[in-house]
Amino acid sequence: MSNDEPKTDGGEPKTDGGGIVPQDDQAPTWSERKERTQGLARLTYEYFERSRREDEDLRRASDYVERDVLAFPTWPHEMIRNLAITSFFLGAMFFIAAAIPPHIPGPADPNSTPAVILPDWYLYWSFGLLKLTPINPELSLLGGQKLMSDRTYGVLANLVVVGVIAIVPFLNKGSARRPVEEPFWAAVGVGGVVFAFTIAVLAVQNLITDLLPMTSGELFILTFMLPFAFAFVAYSVLKTMREGYMFELNRRYYRLRPPK
Amino acid sequence: MSLERKDEHDHEGWMETKDLSPIEEVYLTTLIWLDKRLRIVDYLELLEDMYYKTNLQMPKSHTEQYNLDNKFWYWYPLYALGSFSTIAYVVASITGALLGFYYAPSTAAPSADAATSVAYSNVLFIMGDLNFGTFLRSLHRWSAQVMTAAVFLHMLRVYFTGAYKEPRELNWIIGIVLISLTMVFGYTGYLLPWSQLSYWAGQIGVEMALSIPLIGDWVAQLIFGGFTLGEATLQRMYILHVFLLPFVVTLVIAIHIGIVWMQGIAEPH
Questions:
Q1: Residue A196: inside a domain, yes or no?
Q2: Chain B within 8 Å of A123 (Cβ-Cβ)?
Q3: With CB atoms 3.0 to 4.6 Å apart as the test, which of A101, B71, B159, B236 could cross-link to B138 if both were Cys?
Q4: Residues of A in contact with B207 (CB under 8 A)
């Protein structure tokens, strides 16, 4: 932050949310308000000033460094807006819960296997990854044997997916934030989202092949081709939008935050 | 008059230089006494800060200041998803605690000629006979579903606005731990009614655990209490769902939100 920016707290550089300016010049600063107080509040203020100075002296003597964070404060902006929006959705949730009670299936019976075995919807992706049998490689070195069983392969696929998501911040660095700035990574994201859905559909392939005129082989190919198709479209669109968009962005953003 | 060198931060000496009334003196002595031991100045400053922030007009946020708000506000609900999943988690905890009063994790038959289990008949009791039982279970289930969906959308929002970048990599990884734990939470809860769907979902779980290389048998024993489903499985799922996971997940959520609080909200630019 440059030095000529307006300061809220008596010209002392603030490390929390630096660069935030008051709404207008009439609003008294916090330190002005505190200085006007009398009695015990005034004494508290004076003591706190001393105490803070003491802390500052100690801090200066040590090698403790305070960093400026490029963000805006969680309190109050974020929390107040969150509360407003969240309470609306919370109400909607109560309403849905009252309107649509859950269905109870029959009691557990180890002797009869149901036609369709499914976990809850949010685990379909994981369940779909167990059905990767066609792409479990057969090694000619082992005489056409598979290196690992299909199920082991599926469980490892789960770990690979989670692992890949986990290392994203270490692969994609830099200060760019918007999808238009990085069409490639946005496309990767779109592909990932579409894959989460197609792999979930693969988990219920029995149902799909009954409903739609499609063999399970075709469904399998679609599961992997659709994400690439969507990613490609996203990439082209964002790349096309980029020129016009970046002009605006560069003007007001890179002036503030130079790219590394 | 003492020859001892005056301490620069000698608060009592400072008090003597002021002409204080008895009330002021007692007040200040107490304040200093407490502050020396508990550093209440730090916490009072937080409170004071919040007081002034709520009583003033809100300072301009970054987006308002640089006139990006017109691009930003209609995305705002996506920025509330983290909050929303936390609130859904709170609702699930409260309803879950209430449901716990009426549920026992047992696969034993409730009576000599019954083909069901105590767990299943408890769920039937909650759904059928308990006052507000249907609503309670419905709310528990819906809040769990909503939490999972919100957490997933929250992850997408963070990805597409690049909010996982530089100082926030650690929080991204904690978030992945959290979404995984949320799903485990959901899975263990799915098994508790001991219905036909629960049983066979549990069967898949055991098979998945067994197919982990090297440690598969051990994992199946630890989590499912054996290689076939039974009383031990249900009890372990119960303990995971109502004892272990609540502590772990609450702690990790607190850390996750604490880091967001410290680092501030990453805005799109």
A1: yes
A2: yes
A3: A101
A4: 151
pLDDT computed for residue A68 by the predictor: 47
Which pair of tokens denotes residue B15?
């008090």
Closest by Cβ to B50, choosing from A47, A75, A105: A75
Q: B198-232 pLDDT, tens per residue?
A: 999 999 899 889 888 888 899 999 999 989 899 99
Torsion angle in degrees (nearest 10) through CA of A219, A224, A226, A230: 170
Q: Please check whether residue A83 lies inside any domain of the structure.
A: no
Contact residues on chain A for B263, CB-CB shorter than 8 A: 69, 71
A74 closest CA partner among B97, B62, B95, B40: B62
Number of domains chain A is built from: 1
State residue B151's pLDDT score. 97
> What architecture is the B71-263 domain classified under in CATH?
Up-down Bundle (1.20)
Of B142 and A206, more confident: B142
Out of B28, B148, B187, closest to residue A43 by CB: B28
CA distance A211 to chain B (A): 22
B positions 204-223 inside 8 Å of A (CB): 204, 207-208, 211-213
Q: What is the CA radius of gyration of chain A?
A: 29
Half-sphere exposure of B1 (CA within 13 A, CB side): 0
Question: Is A12 domain-assigned?
Answer: no
Q: Cβ contacts (< 8 Å) between A19 and chain B: which residues?
A: 62, 65
Would you say residue A135 lies in a domain? yes
Element (H, E) at B229: none
CA B211, CA B180: separation in Å to the nearest integer? 19
| Cβ neighbours of A130 in B, within 8 Å | 204, 208
Whole domain around residue A121: which residue ranges?
113-254
CA-based nearest residue in chain B for residue A22: B59
Domain locations in chain B?
11-56, 71-263
Tell me the two tokens of residue A174. Answer: 């830099």
